């Protein structure tokens, strides 16, 4: 009698109640909802922004299992939201995050400070004016003021272009060492319209470094020309660049030469606003 009462009053697996309750929880743990996966993805982005050494470090900082962190990290890498550091020493935010962020360009201090100066430059030249930032081997446009001429430049705010083939891209790397310049060449030479040798690339970039500006002579688009100059912060580091672009019809060699001091002056004015 006593034994029967104990069995009746104690919830056990024999009664089938615990397995029935636990099974859905286990299933949910194995197959998280879409919203849970999204939140984990955001957790990973925030952890990478703060700095992580490897997947195990990422799993510790986010409280995920190694396999879950690896799965979501791989998906974010495929979409360019996260990038593996060169040499495999950690991860960082990818260019897609910057592209999305820069679409909110009106909220970016650099853009806000630069815009009146760019507007004045566009009025002086009647050409398309750009402000851009470097991300790995790419250029991301922060601002664009369209030409007053009947000219259409295939760029947009938040858009991406190769660094190696654009004037504004070359201006962004005027402080690079020879090894860094050759690294860009090795990774991006296939994007150039015309093949050049490593020696020709270095010679061209050294000349731009010496003069403090850069050109696009049709390397990106055959009929487009561009004059660009770097923008520096208060530590004299290049953090952005500006350019004036137009078609070959409006920008021959002489006019490009005439535009150089105007572009450099505008870049210097933006740098001064940043304390540079």
Keywords:
276 residues, two-stranded antiparallel sheet, Beta-Lactamase, Arc Repressor Mutant, subunit A, alpha+beta, 8 strands
Describe what you observe in this structure.
This protein has helices spanning 2-9, 17-30, 34-50, 55-62, 66-78, 95-102, 109-125, 167-172, 178-188, 198-211, 253-273; strands at 82-84, 91-93, 128-135, 138-145, 160-162, 214-217, 224-232, 238-247. It is an alpha+beta fold. It has two domains: 13-93, Arc Repressor Mutant, subunit A; 106-273, GAF domain (Beta-Lactamase, 2-Layer Sandwich). The strands form two sheets. It has a six-stranded antiparallel β-sheet with strand order 5-4-3-8-7-6. The radius of gyration is 27 Å and the shape is elongated. The relative contact order is 0.09.
Condensed summary:
The protein has 276 residues and is an alpha+beta fold. It contains eleven helices and eight strands. It has a six-stranded antiparallel sheet with strand order 5-4-3-8-7-6. It has a two-stranded antiparallel sheet with strand order 1-2.
CATH class of the largest domain: Alpha Beta
Please identify the oligomeric state.
single chain
User: What's the name of the CATH homologous superfamily of the largest domain?
Assistant: GAF domain
- Percentage of residues in DSSP E strands: 15-25%
Major sheet summary line: 6 strands, antiparallel
- Helix amount: 40-55%
Shape: elongated
* Number of strand segments: 8
Distance between the termini: 90 Å
CATH topology of the largest domain: Beta-Lactamase
CATH architecture classification of the largest domain: 2-Layer Sandwich
Rounded to the nearest angstrom, the radius of gyration is: 27 Å
Nearest-integer average pLDDT = 85
Number of helices: 11
Instruction: Count up the domains.
Output: 2
Strand order of the largest sheet: 5-4-3-8-7-6
Order of helices and strands: HHHHHEEHHEEEHHHEEEH
What structural class do helix, strand and pairing data support?
A: alpha+beta
Parts with pLDDT < 50 across at least 5 consecutive residues: 1-29
């Amino acid at each position: 009698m006593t034994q029967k009462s104990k069995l009746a009053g104690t919830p056990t697996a024999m009664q089938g109640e615990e397995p029935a309750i636990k099974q859905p929880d286990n299933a949910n743990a194995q197959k998280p909802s879409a919203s849970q996966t999204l939140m984990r993805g955001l957790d990973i982005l925030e952890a990478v922004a703060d700095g992580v050494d490897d997947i195990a470090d990422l799993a510790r900082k986010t409280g995920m299992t190694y396999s879950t962190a690896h799965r979501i990290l791989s998906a974010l890498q495929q979409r360019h939201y996260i990038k593996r550091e060169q040499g495999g020493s950690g991860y960082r935010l990818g260019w897609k995050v910057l592209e999305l962020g820069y679409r909110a360009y009106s909220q970016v201090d650099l853009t806000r400070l630069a815009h009146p100066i760019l507007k004045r430059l566009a009025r002086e030249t009647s050409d398309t004016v750009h402000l851009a930032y470097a991300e790995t081997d790419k250029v991301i446009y922060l601002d664009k003021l369209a030409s007053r001429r009947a000219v259409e430049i295939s760029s947009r705010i938040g858009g991406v272009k190769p660094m190696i083939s654009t004037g504004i891209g070359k201006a962004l790397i005027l402080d690079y060492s020879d090894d860094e310049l050759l690294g860009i060449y090795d990774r991006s030479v296939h994007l150039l319209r015309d093949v050049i040798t490593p020696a020709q690339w270095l010679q061209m970039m050294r000349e731009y470094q010496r003069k403090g500006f850069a050109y696009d002579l049709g390397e990106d688009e055959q009929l487009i020309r561009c004059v660009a100059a770097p923008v520096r912060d208060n530590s004299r580091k290049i953090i952005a660049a500006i350019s004036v672009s137009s078609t070959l019809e409006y920008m021959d060699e002489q006019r490009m030469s005439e535009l150089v001091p105007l572009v450099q002056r505008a870049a210097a004015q933006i740098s001064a606003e940043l304390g540079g």
